[in-house]
Amino acid sequence: MSQAESILKNAFAAALAVADPKKIVPQYLHQIFPAGQEPKGRCLVVGAGKASASMASAMEDFANQCWPQVDLSGLVLTRYGHGSPTQKIQIVEAGHPVPDQAGMDGAKEIFRLVGQLQQGDVLIALISGGGSSLLTLPQPGISIDDMRQTTEALLRSGAPIEEMNVVRKHLSAIQGGNLARLAIARGARVEALIISDVTGDSPADIASGPCAPDYSTYQDALDILAKYHLGAGAIPTSVPNHLSRGNAGEIPETLKEADLKNVQVNNHVIATAYKSLEAAAQYVRDHGYEPIILGDTITGEAQAVGIEQAAAVRELLQGKQSDKRAVALISGGECTVTLPVGIKGRGGRCSEYLLSLLNASEDMHNIAALAADTDGIDGSEKNAGAWFTPQIRKAAQAEGLVPTEFLAQHDCYGFFAQLNALVETGPTLTNVNDFRIILID
Q1: Cβ burial, residue 249 (10 Å; 0-12/13-18/19+)
Q2: Could you report the per-residue pLDDT of 346-389, keeping only the tens digit for each?
Q3: If you count Cβ atoms within 10 Å of the first and of the last residue's Cβ in the chain, which end, N or C, has fewer?
Q4: Residues 33-51: what's their mean pLDDT?
Q5: Residues 171, 254: Cα–Cα separation, whole Å
Q6: Where are the domains of the chain?
Q7: What architecture (CATH level 2) is domain 20-271?
Q8: Phi/psi zone of residue 402: left (φ > 0), alpha (ψ -120 to 50 degrees), beta?
Q9: Which of 100, 133, 135 is nearest to 114 (CA)?
Q10: What is the pTM of this model?
């Protein structure tokens, strides 16, 4: 393994470590429930997301050690393959990013359990990215197939995750704060622990905010469907019909700030993309690189972002002709990939960004880069992302691999697979959005 490859992979590992639920969940539980203030009634743990099962394991370990007398039980939903061992909290694996019946059945059971809470009970919600698809419990009149078709259409449209979630939370009986609404109606206290995978880290956006007041409206959801031309034929008619009824005041809006007066509802964001970028920055600093964090809110088409960051590298190199220090550009945020009709594609936004960067930096032979999704899965395949070094660039040229041809087919997985340059972690059991790093030597 070359030094550049080692630095890339270890920086990614540092970013993952700081978002490990086993470390951060106990820290926050100690803060939320100081000694002597543990739950006195029933403690129901529910949740959803790619990190929810590992959060549940950490929750159980904490309770076994610190709350041996507390009546703990619950259920969390996670993506297939992202389970973690528990005894008191049931783990249900379900479909993501397109919801399935297992997810709907699990969400229905969560709704039932929360509806049984009593005055003085505590609801702990373990929320992470991916929860929007997993917590699928449609409002009356909308079927699971309707939700599935709508999710698929939004994914194909290239809509960013924040806009997708505005639509989904207005179709849901749980999201948009509706889970908290049900709990406080029963007299329960609500404490949500959240691992953020969205830009801005707003609890209302993460997993479509099941316990958070929502800033969006039915009109916003209708506007998003219109923006991406998702009308009749693209999505089931039950969806715009429901949204129109909500906009007319026939169906209650999602939870708002005004609904939270004189109740105990708290949303704690315990891990963020920026904290992970800072951890990676410290790692590269310790290994001789000057880190520059470009931010954790970089969005847009993956190929366009790759071109933009290649231009930033070029500009940086031109300005550092007399400066011999090595530099690492680090960034986060969630890009999108819009697939043309008839193109299936292989890979995901991280590998597509990376191949675009490789192609746009063909005149710069002294850079190395890695891009990976912190949940361990980048799009359609089982890799987290990909990486390249000057040696990988030379190997691609020697094998006659033309980046533009793979970019045109959105087959960035195929390009890096042939070079053994995929990042393969398996499910990381956390999720703080995408991670990108460019080393400039």
Answers
A1: exposed
A2: 999 999 999 999 999 999 989 999 999 999 999 889 999 999 99
A3: N
A4: 93
A5: 10
A6: 20-271, 274-440
A7: 3-Layer(aba) Sandwich (3.40)
A8: beta
A9: 135
A10: 0.84
